[in-house]
Amino acid sequence: MSKKHKIIIEDLIHIYKGQVETVALRGVDLKIKAGEKICLVGKSGTGKSTLLHCIAGLLIPSSGKIFLEDEDITKFSINELVALRRDKIGLVYQNFNLIDFLTVDENIQIPMLAANKDKDTRTKRVDELLKEFDIGRYKKSYPPYLSGGEKQRVAVAVALANNPDIILADEPTGNLDLENATNIYELLDELVTNHKITLILATHDANALNYVDRKIEMSDLNTKK
Ligand SMILES: Nc1ncnc2c1ncn2[C@@H]1O[C@H](COP(=O)(O)OP(=O)(O)OP(=O)(O)O)[C@@H](O)[C@H]1O
Ligand SMILES: [Mg+2]
């Protein structure tokens, strides 16, 4: 497998089995280079979130392969998937996913606690991220007191706490106005460029296209029968 590709997806199929079966991914093939910034677009229900969840190891696909560097994560055990999500992948969601009864400081520490990082390392990393994202004054604040844009910056800090090399962002600006959305895109763009992170962004927002290297239409990935 080629070194320059960070993610290689081969013939990925996912079928949700409920009362009705929904084929969400029908044989997706996709290669993404290390450090690349991708925007995944497409109508509602075309499988963008499903694809992100498979790459994140949150959802085990029905069949197909997902190589992250040299390893096919569809073969991983539950413990290996937990470690993957903790150490390698940062997730950012539309609804921020912050814990309201913990402070900004504590929210950012959670992924580092899960990774058994010592207190000094955690404190240093929190301060570094707060400074980088210009939210230091909210260190001891609780998320409900922050604006949407501030919450999303905290959420990005949480996603970055363990220095992941892949960021998956599912509609990260869905709850933000244009100015705050632009701030988040600029922030992600800067981070990805400075730290050589690979970014996959799923969004309906055409503005996002200004910040990525490549746009991928979900319908172009889902062409197999
Ligand atoms: N947990 C689930 N159980 C059953 N079906 C699901 C589940 N999650 C998604 N689906 C179905 O799978 C298909 C793809 O959904 P998905 O959420 O991946 O689309 P999406 O492109 O992210 O849509 P949106 O733009 O609205 O976020 C849809 O038909 C959806 O109804
Ligand atoms: Mg979605």
Taken as a percent bin, the fraction of beta residues is 25-35%
Q: Could you state the CATH homologous superfamily?
A: P-loop containing nucleotide triphosphate hydrolases
- How many discrete structural domains? 1
Percent of residues in helical segments? Answer: 25-40%
Helices and strands, in order, run as EEEHEEHEHHHEHEEH
For the secondary structure, the number of strands is: 9
Q: Major sheet, described briefly?
A: 5 strands, parallel
Mean pLDDT: 94
What count of helical segments does DSSP give? 7
Summary, kept brief:
The protein has 225 residues and is α/β, with parallel strands linked by helices. It has helices spanning 48-55, 78-87, 104-114, 119-132, 148-160, 178-195, 218-221; strands at residues 5-17, 21-33, 37-41, 63-68, 71-72, 89-93, 166-170, 198-202, 214-217. The chain contains seven helices and nine strands.
Structure description:
- The chain has helices spanning 48-55, 78-87, 104-114, 119-132, 148-160, 178-195, 218-221; strands at 5-17, 21-33, 37-41, 63-68, 71-72, 89-93, 166-170, 198-202, 214-217.
- The chain has 225 residues and is of the alpha/beta class.
- The protein has a single domain (35-49, 76-221), classed as P-loop containing nucleotide triphosphate hydrolases (Rossmann fold), CATH 3.40.50.300.
- The strands form two sheets. Strands 6-7-8-3-9 form a five-stranded parallel beta sheet, sandwiched between helices.
- The protein is globular and about 55 Å long.
- The two termini are 27 Å apart.
- The mean pLDDT is 94.
- The chain binds adenosine-5'-triphosphate and magnesium ion (MG).
- Residues 16, 18, 22, 24, 42, 44-50 line the site of adenosine-5'-triphosphate.
- Magnesium ion (MG) is lined by residues 48-49, 170.
